TrEMBL record:
<dbReference type="InterPro" id="IPR029058">
    <property type="entry name" value="AB_hydrolase_fold"/>
</dbReference>
<keyword id="KW-0732">Signal</keyword>
<protein>
    <recommendedName>
        <fullName>Esterase</fullName>
    </recommendedName>
</protein>
<dbReference type="InterPro" id="IPR050583">
    <property type="entry name" value="Mycobacterial_A85_antigen"/>
</dbReference>
<feature type="signal peptide">
    <location>
        <begin position="1"/>
        <end position="18"/>
    </location>
</feature>
Length: 586
């Protein structure tokens, strides 16, 4: 699941006069219109577009001036307002209007916006046209190095936020004043190398050149031991800008302290930096295992990563990662290059990817450690049983409509409902193009629709579940079901390789699916799965099996936890007779 991201600015500029600002080229008028709602018209400036554009046009309103409105859209009660519409063939110099039919979040219509002073922004999330090999032509946002984030994607149009007094019956004319600049890629260092390769498999599917990347952390002594080949540690997770959790200098305590609301911890920024530095010291010290460690960049036109599996809508990402990217890394940096010598770990989305790749590619990976994985049993797709429930948003009742929760804290207090979370996504993009959590699950798991976009598991407006789509999900991506269905074949290949960890108060109720998967694993025989399932008492997302530290700390120690655990407990068990288990232990 997508939890934490830092967002770069996307800005709007407004003036309360009817004059044109020569620098910003932004126009605001306060003329009255015959309507019960405020009306917003957006002009596409000629100097910011040299051709017609496609995309998602988003209007953002906020009463909080502490940061830009584009940073303030969330699933919690603190969210501000957004309204979105699809744009096709938008001609430079022309205008588009938001009206009463434009969907909004959390308010459904502009007519519901209370009068008052707001910070206002507009943003155009650009789409490109893909002519896929399956015969479908689709319009989607291409990742541009930012990890598929609508509010920081280079090339998106935006304007600088300014205060407006919003009143019903008023017309406001808005215009963009800039584009988001390109992202500067990280540079190689002594320890971290960055690679990018063209994937032939993905390029064929998408009808254009498509790339995979990775950040490679070299072991201590790599350059001094040119004849040694190393095991490979693969951390799955959301799009990494660089190798995460790594810092070669002590924490900078001269920086102002930042309080973590989530963990209720002072100076959490200092804590994070110190943990990163501690990992550097451990990695370069005398006792840490000498292995290659990588984090993969595999953003898709639908999300910040592919879920590391083959998919009708995303293409053969599982094969591309397993048979193109990883062998290339092993060849470049002297990996052993055999399934037993690779292991995967990660949390949330990365947790699902780790166990899914292990199950779907059992011979190509030696062990997985999956923490707080996205739902691995769709009988508990968070709080929805997609096979038996008729509606995802409401509990079944003849007399009332009780909404299904979507997010809670460790005491069970609900911050948002499933319907609200999907409403936010629908504002950010139709046809699964929001770049958010529920949409990517559909993009990965669903069959392709007649229009070329993912079929809905449920109606985004009503929550009504489509049982035919659910059946497709079960046969292809319900990991617990697949293990149970295919255990006669998979069992001998998965014995000792499955390790699961989850807090029993996971914010997204992901522990429910782990309970069901554990029941299936404990019933296995010939062979018994011989792995591990563990739970953290009152632990939130994303607990990873460390009972000695609070979640605020353990979540920062994935590399330090799982790499030694793998080498000390599991690698020898999976290695074949005669395997090299000594040359890299210097």
């Amino acid at each position: 699941m997508k939890l934490l991201h830092s967002f770069l600015p996307i800005l709007l500029s407004f003036s309360l006069s009817a004059q044109v600002d020569s620098a910003a080229k932004t126009v605001i008028t306060g003329t009255e219109v015959d309507t019960e709602m405020p009306a917003f018209q957006v002009r596409l400036p000629n100097d910011l577009a040299d051709q017609a554009l496609d995309g998602r046009l988003i209007l953002l309103l906020s009463k909080d001036d502490s940061e830009e409105p584009r940073f303030q859209l969330s699933d919690g009660p603190e969210t501000q307002l957004a309204f979105g519409m699809d744009v096709e063939n938008w001609q430079p110099g022309s205008q588009l209007a938001f009206n009463s039919d434009t969907p909004g979040y959390p308010l459904k219509s502009l007519a519901e916006v209370p009068p008052g002073d707001y910070q206002v922004q507009i943003l155009l999330h650009k789409y490109e046209t893909f002519n896929r090999s399956d015969g479908h032509t689709v319009k989607l946002p291409m990742d541009r190095g930012e990890g598929q984030q609508w509010n920081k994607a280079p090339g998106n149009l935006l304007s600088t936020p300014q205060k407006l007094t919003i009143e019903s019956g008023q017309n406001y004319e808005l215009a963009f004043d800039r584009t988001i600049p390109a992202i500067v890629p990280p540079e190689d260092t002594e320890w971290i190398k960055h690679i990018k390769i063209k994937s032939e498999l993905l390029s064929e599917f998408w009808g254009r050149d498509m790339y995979l990347g990775a950040h490679v952390l070299l072991p201590q002594g790599w350059a001094e031991h040119p004849d040694v080949k190393y095991p490979l540690a693969i951390m799955h997770g959301h799009f990494p800008a660089d190798f995460g959790g790594w810092r070669t200098e002590p924490a900078d305590t001269t920086q102002p302290c930042e309080y973590s609301e989530r963990f209720q911890m002072d100076c959490y920024n200092h804590v994070v930096q110190q943990e990163e530095y501690d990992f550097y010291k451990a990695w370069t010290g005398p006792d840490f295992p000498r292995v290659l460690a990588i984090e993969i960049q595999h953003a898709t036109p639908y999300y910040d990563d592919s879920y590391a599996v083959n998919s009708e809508n995303l293409g053969p990402y599982g094969d591309a990662i397993t048979y193109e990217l990883i062998p290339y890394i092993e060849a470049q940096f002297r990996g052993i290059g055999e399934g037993w010598s690779r292991f995967m770990y990660g949390g949330s989305t990365g947790g699902w990817e780790a166990i899914a790749a292990q199950v779907l590619y059992p011979d190509d990976y030696g062990t997985c450690y999956a923490a707080c994985p996205d739902p691995i049993d769709f009988r508990a797709f968070c709080l929805t049983n997609i096979y038996e429930d008729k509606n995802a948003y409401y509990l079944e009742s003849d007399y009332k409509r009780t909404e299904v929760p979507g997010h809670r804290d460790y005491l069970g207090n609900v911050q948002s409902t499933l319907r609200e979370m999907n409403q936010r996504e629908l504002v950010l993009g139709t046809r699964g193009r929001s770049g958010q959590q529920w949409d990517i699950w559909e993009a990965v798991y669903s069959p392709v629709g007649d229009d070329g976009y993912p079929q809905r598991i449920w109606d985004k407006e009503t929550g009504e579940i489509n049982p035919e789509v659910a059946a497709h999900w079960r046969e292809n991506f319900d990991i617990a079901y697949i293990m149970k269905r295919d255990w006669a074949e998979l069992g001998p290949k998965l014995k000792g390789k499955i390790h699961l960890y989850c807090g029993d108060m996971d914010n997204y109720y992901l522990n429910n699916a782990v309970y069901l998967a554990e029941e299936i694993l404990e019933e296995t025989s010939q062979p018994y799965y011989d792995g591990e399932v563990d739970y953290g008492d009152r632990a939130e997302h994303c607990w990873n099996g460390d009972h000695t530290q609070p979640n605020a700390i353990s979540r920062l120690r994935y590399h330090r936890m799982f790499i030694p655990k793998w080498v000390e407990e599991d690698l020898v068990k999976q290695a074949p007779v005669g395997a090299d288990l000594s040359s890299w232990r210097y």
